[in-house]
Amino acid sequence: MEGIMERRFGNRDGGGRHFGGGGFNRETREMHDAVCAKCKKECKVPFKPSKDRPVYCRECFQKKREEEEQ
Ligand SMILES: [Zn+2]
Description:
Number of helices: 2
Strand content: 5-15%
Number of strands: 2
Number of domains: 1
Radius of gyration: 22 Å
Bound molecules: zinc ion
């Protein structure tokens, strides 16, 4: 009986460790270096910047969205 209990606890501990050390949400996406088309500031984007589309930093992207909504 005691042996079974120990095994269970061992499994739980291992699972918890895996879950905590994963950091899955933080680094799931590869970040690419880019230069903002508006303020020319260096920034990182979660997609590969292409020459066809202008890349905006977070601030400019938000401003642009606000401007378009008005
Ligand atoms: Zn910008």
